[in-house]
Amino acid sequence: MRISPHVHSLLLNFEIELSSGVKIPRFVPAYVIEAERLTVVDTAVKSSAPTIFEYIESIGRKPEEIEYVINTHGHFDHVGGNGIFAERAKPRFFAHPKDKAIIESLEYQERIRPIGNMREQNTSGDVAVTDLLNEGDTLDLGGGVQVEVFHTPGHSPGSLSLFIPEDGALFCGDVLPEPGTLPVYEDVRQTLDSLIKLRLVRGATVLLSQLSDQVWRGDDVYAHIDDGEAYLRRIDRLVRQAADLLGEKSSREEICRVVFRELGLPEAASALPIVQTTIMAHLVTDPLGE
Q1: Residues 6+ apart with CB under 8 A from 111
Q2: Torsion angles phi and psi, residue 249, rounded to 5
Q3: CB hemisphere CA count around 101 (13 angstroms)
Q4: By the 8 A CB rule, do 188 and 285 touch?
Q5: Residue 29 in this model has a pLDDT that exceeds 90
Q6: Which three-class secondary structure state does DSSP give residue 237?
Q7: For residue 104, how many other CB atoms are within 10 A of its CB?
Q8: Do the Cβ atoms of 69 and 49 come closer than 8 Å?
Q9: 101-108 long-range contacts, CB within 8 A, separation 24+
Q10: Which CATH number applies to 7-233?
Q11: Does residue 290 have a pLDDT over 70?
Q12: DSSP symbol at 177
């Protein structure tokens, strides 16, 4: 779907299978930037690659034209198709230095951040990051289309947000906690600081958050960033209340179940190590307050 003059969004479905056999349905958007240098933002999971290639053909371009792949961060569901893209198009791969290691070694990522059978089922092999992106960088895609780079850690150490001024399009990866969805971030304070940074980006008229299946436009762009911050603060209060209620001997699993119940989230998902890490991160951070 065309989102702006140069940006297309594809909503891609997949599943996370836990060791218990439980399958948790998930989705992830990937984006095509239609410029002189055809660019893909995140390659999703390996099963998504044919869908992305077919879409590129539907707009009159060829997958072999892809020159750049930008990984907003290194998690499995955003880099899972990298191997297939490398084989077919041989693009340059861009990422932040702090996520480089988990992109280039999916086995290493699995060891430090296990998520069911993600590596086996949803990735297509290790790929070298050819180009590093840092805060303040600008990537020229040709024809007047430029991508401004913001380092917005919290969800991962090397999470990036991107802004195309010509389209007013702001890509925030997974850094914006989406109300009503699974909270997944590693550092609470960094997440809050990144939301403050996003709010200061001027001229954004389209917000593309990869934890949402919606596109936010106009005044809703900054209002939705505010909603994400409010959700983060609500989770912070609930975690601290649950920890106080259950006492010092409570397990992370018990705290997660209580918080998920209050948030109206599926209890099965509270068993995911990544969300348990998120919930417990609040307890090693000073309260966020109001």
Answers
A1: none
A2: -85, 5
A3: 9
A4: yes
A5: yes
A6: helix
A7: 18
A8: no
A9: 101/74, 102/74, 102/75, 102/156, 103/71, 103/74, 103/79, 103/127, 103/129, 104/128, 104/129, 106/76, 106/79
A10: 3.60.15.10
A11: no
A12: P
Mean pLDDT computed over 247-255? 89
Q: Please spell the DSSP secondary structure of 156-174, one letter per residue.
A: STT-EEEEETTTTEEE-TT
Q: Residue 192 in contact with residue 229, Cβ under 8 Å?
A: yes
What is the residue whose two structure tokens read 């209050």? 262
Burial class (CB in 10 A: 0-12, 13-18, 19+), 203: exposed
Q: Record the tokens describing residue 75, joined without a space.
A: 């998690």
pTM of the model: 0.95
Alpha-carbon distance of 72 to 198, in angstroms, equals: 14
Q: CA-CA distance, 204 to 123, in Å (whole number)? A: 32
